[in-house]
Amino acid sequence: MGSDSRPSRAALEPLATLDPAALAGLPVSTPITVRSAALSGRLLYLGTGGGKLLLFSLDEQGAAPGFLRLLPIGATLPVSAILPLPSVARVLVLADGILLLADPLLSRPVRRLGSLRGVTAVAAPAGADPSSPSCSIVVSVGKKLLRVDLSLHDGDELDVQTREIALVDGVKALAWVGDSVFVGTATGYSLYSSSTGQGVDMFTLPESSGHPRVKRLSGDEEVMLLVDNVGVVVDRFGQPVGSSLVFSTTPNCIAEVFPYVIVAGDSKVDVYRRRNGAHLQTIPFARSGPDVLIVASDDDVNGTDLVVIATAYKVFCYRKVSAVEQIKASLRRKNYKEAISLLAEFESDGEISEDMISFVHAQLGFLLFFDLRFEDAVNHFLLSESMQPSEIFPFIMRDPNRWSDLVPRKRYWGLHPPPKPLEEVIDDGLVTVQRALFLKKAGVDTVVDEGFLSNPPSRADLLELAIRNIIRYLCASRLKNLSSPEMEGVDTLLMYLYRALDLVDDMEKLASSQNSCVVDELESLLDDSGHLRTLAFLYGSKGMCSKALSIWRILARNYGSGLWKDLSENGSHETSVDKKSGEEIAAIEASKILKTSSDEDLVLEHLGWVADIDQELAIAVLTSEMREKQLSPEKVVAAVDSEKVMIHQRYLQWLIEDQGCDDPHYHTSYALLLSKSAMEAVHMESEYGGKDDKEIDSNVQFIYSLRERLQLFLQASDLYDPEDVLDVIAESELWLEKAILYRKMGQENIVLQILALKLEDSEAAEQYCAEIGRDDAYIQLLGLYLDPQNGKEPMFTAAVRLLHNHGKSLDPLQVLERLSPDMPLQLASDTILRMLRARVHHHRQGQIVHNLSRATNLDARLTRLEERSRHVQLTDESICDSCRARLGTKLFVMYPDDSVVCYRCYRNQGDSSSGRGRNFRKDVIFKQSWLVSR
């Protein structure tokens, strides 16, 4: 009688035990000995040594087997093999070397298949189509290997065709896969083609080798060839594939229930995993009668879970334990390594669904979590696609809370207690560890991790480890597509955990980024713990700008007054150039909020303290393009401290240049601010004594840049009041700026005085005269050069240069009147001579042009007269070129292109367009006779 051992893993579980003789109602005086067995669906066929066939029905749910029928075939015909052939509704029986056919329900007497005698082995091909009314088998008879084709016809008639494949002697085992027939003899294994009969020897067996056995495997058209206690797996071409299976004993019988290979021998049945040959289970059997165990499964049904193990007098039915049940059993024993290994095996074999894989990972995670193995637990949580982040919430926040309704009520397999706060989990776990230590000292084995027993951790270390790993899980959960309430719970509880470990950088990073934190849950917590920066970031990310700015203002004041330690003293990794103080950082963060805010009152309220820390930040706030609605310039100008000139300047510059503001008031204000700054810079320039050259160069460059900006603005803008600006710079040395302003006011003489006398820029003065466009401007400039007044010496060189460049266009009399008696004659003689010659040439050239013009005019008048005096002859057939009416005695008009129209058409189309459609304004007509020929 079979009995299960206590294996570490049970791949097969007992389903039913049956006594064939008792179920068949046979008397004790006529016992039966089972010699063969076969499964076909839920039907179990048994063959006895006394020539009987027995049929039983099995149930996978564990119901008692039912006896269906007993069919005697002959007392002297022991049944050595049974082969169900469902496609032709027959069961093939090999008994004492002859082949017999029976119907599947054994309702009719058996019939002999042909006249074959001495049959030693028989096999059917793999993958036969059960819907086809035909099948084939391969039979070994004597020295022949035969193929027998069976076809089922109407009336349950069976047509049998036999042909020889090859000559093979001593066949003991057969298997048929595809076109290949594997033959096992006492000397070795061979491979033959069922269609052509060609064969090849695969390998030979040693003389001491046991009985050859060939087993067809399901799935990939593979065959197992037995060599002593080694199962060599080959494909249908005879090539080894995968790894061989090494059995503990030489098998007497081999069966397969995917993914396991089951072998019987030496009064036990062993279960091996087909993929890697790992030994999984041993089922021992007591010796009773002949020491032969028969193992049978349904080779034609994929996914079958039943296997039959038969001894001489009893039959034991086993069922494959499902993947889920095997994993569950390992978890009950807290054998996590085995459970993980099983999960990987079943996943690779396709024995478990994706949903179940996620479920098992979550179950593993919870068990490990309650065993205080937090890192491993979270690793499995992350591998579970079906686990919801809300299932972790009870570990962090005690029920009831805002998210209690989000927590799914899952119990999984009931292997772990319901989630509870981390502190309680750790306390209970430590109690378990202490209990295990006590039991270990008493010599009792426990399932507690040896690492905990050898080095028990402290409560604080476990709590920190748990929090860090839950943080890791929640961070990964943020990347999932979660519902809004669940996302709020994840971010809020993540902030709780960051605070618990005082992870300030992580808190601020989460608060400043896009998040779903609930402010109400965190406000008092962060305020009480002093994490004001995090609270300010959180307010800012939630659009609560006023509260955020108030906190940044408090932080800046506290850092500035020394109440708090400056952030720059905290060992920052920044370089000295990049290092910023606490109040600077507060101003920077506040400016980020102010740049996007369109609330004028809020911006102007906080602009002052930001400007006190960094004026550049204040300028960036005022000139930001990120806000939806720009600030009112009037309010901004009124709010900015008048002493902060740079802010005023930069804001007005942005307002005018970038925003295109055309308000004269702001243009004037900007010009006045630039002028004052330029005057201050020039005043500072005069105090450069005692400074090194590098500092002087820097200051000079700044002054040059400032004055250049002022000059460009004064030239470009026409909206400011030049008189107001002049009043400011009147006593300064900003002569070029004054020249620009006087030019705006139309004071040409003053402009020329500044350019020629103050700046002594002859080129600029002449350019200004050219812009004026009048000759008297050059005469006026010449007068300034020759009579500068105020005790200044005449500028003869500049005067000569002026005459040289523009003397040809000037009136010689006016030039001579302006010349000073003190001017050396040799300086001006050449220029005056050239000017007079040019004047005479210009006069004569004008006379020539005048006379030519008169001649051309006279010739044109004569030609016009000739055209007008031409004679035109009209006949009765003459018509208008425009309306096509007869002219007769009507008034008519003739155009230069010789087209004639009636007077009415002429009035309609005018002088510019002829009757033929020619436009004289665009297409001028020219006749050769009009050329000047006189």
Question: Can you give a write-up of this model?
Answer:
The structure is a single chain. With 934 residues, this protein is of the alpha+beta class. It contains 30 helices and 30 strands.
How helical, in percent, are the residues? 40-55%
Largest sheet: 4 strands, antiparallel
Distance between the termini: 149 Å
Unreliable residue runs: 1-7, 566-578
Number of DSSP strands?
30
Give the neighbour order of strands across the main sheet.
1-28-27-26
Shape: elongated
Question: In percent terms, what proportion of residues is strand?
Answer: 15-25%
Which value, in Å, is the CA radius of gyration?
56 Å
Class by helix and strand content?
Answer: alpha+beta
Helix count, per DSSP? 30
Calculate the mean pLDDT score and round it.
Answer: 85
Question: Would you spell out the secondary-structure blueprint of this structure?
Answer:
Blueprint: E1 12-18, H1 20-24, E2 34-40, E3 43-48, E4 52-57, E5 66-72, E6 79-85, E7 90-95, E8 98-102, E9 111-112, E10 119-123, E11 134-141, E12 144-153, E13 157-167, E14 171-177, E15 180-185, E16 188-193, E17 199-204, E18 214-217, E19 222-227, E20 230-235, E21 245-246, E22 253-257, E23 260-265, E24 268-273, E25 279-284, E26 294-296, E27 306-310, E28 315-320, H2 323-332, H3 336-349, H4 354-370, H5 374-383, H6 393-396, H7 422-441, H8 450-454, H9 459-477, H10 484-500, H11 504-512, H12 519-529, H13 532-541, H14 545-561, H15 582-596, H16 600-613, H17 615-622, H18 633-639, H19 645-658, H20 664-685, H21 693-716, H22 722-729, H23 735-745, H24 748-758, H25 762-772, H26 775-786, H27 796-806, H28 812-818, H29 825-868, E29 892-894, E30 900-902, H30 903-909
Antiparallel strand pairs: 1-28, 2-3, 3-4, 4-5, 6-7, 7-8, 8-9, 10-11, 11-12, 12-13, 14-15, 15-16, 16-17, 18-19, 19-20, 20-21, 22-23, 23-24, 24-25, 26-27, 27-28, 29-30
